[in-house]
Amino acid sequence: MILPIVAYGDPVLKKVGEDITKEYPKLDTLLENMFETMYNAMGVGLAAPQIGIPIRLFLVDTSPFAEDDVLSEDERAALKDFKRVFINAKIIEEEGDEWAFNEGCLSIPDVREDVFRAPKITIEYYDENFKKHTETFDGLIARVIQHEYDHIEGVLFTEKLSSFKKRLIKGKLLNISKGKINVDYRMRFPNQKKKR
Question: Is-catalytic flag, 67?
């Protein structure tokens, strides 16, 4: 089922997510719905707070980046096959000189800005079967993970911008929070009531 994506301005996007256990109700269905929602919106990542659930859960599928011709064959191959679920994730190390990349967010449509992030991360997480992993990622995969990880920490990419950039996009952000935007996917705006 395709779920509405929560828009900028909703307080749930500012909450630090809660850890969950393998007894979390209907986790398989939630994951299925999140993947379907992400693909419908043409995203490469989606965090539970973006669908209104403040828990430490996000998923990533970087395959759309694999079509980028400026990347090496190895980079494209890695991106093509990278699809993961991250539960109760904790970044334990960030390494290297931060680099800029133009980011967007399904909760903040039509806003894209350069964000600086570490090129390499080590992260501890549980997969959908609650098997624990500690892995190191770099490049675009690390970047997508960091963006989604920020969501479970209650941080949006717009908070990482300079004061000047924030002032430039202030009007756009206000319009998004008021629902004054056209998008090709379902969204829930802060002033809308939840449908039961």
Answer: no
State how many domains the chain has: 1
d(CA 64, CA 128): 22
103, 148, 153, 159: the active-site residue: 148
Q: Does pLDDT of 137 surpass 50? A: yes
Render 20-44 in DSSP notation, one character per residue: --TT-TTHHHHHHHHHHHHHHTT-S
CATH no. for residue 126?
3.90.45.10
Q: Please choose, from the candidates 111, 195, 94, 69, the residue with its C-alpha nearest in 3D space to the C-alpha of residue 145.
A: 94
Kindly report the pTM of this predicted structure: 0.93
**Within-domain flag for 74:** yes
pLDDT in tens, 77-134: 888 889 999 999 999 999 999 999 999 999 999 999 999 999 999 999 999 999 999 9
Domain interval for residue 102: 5-188
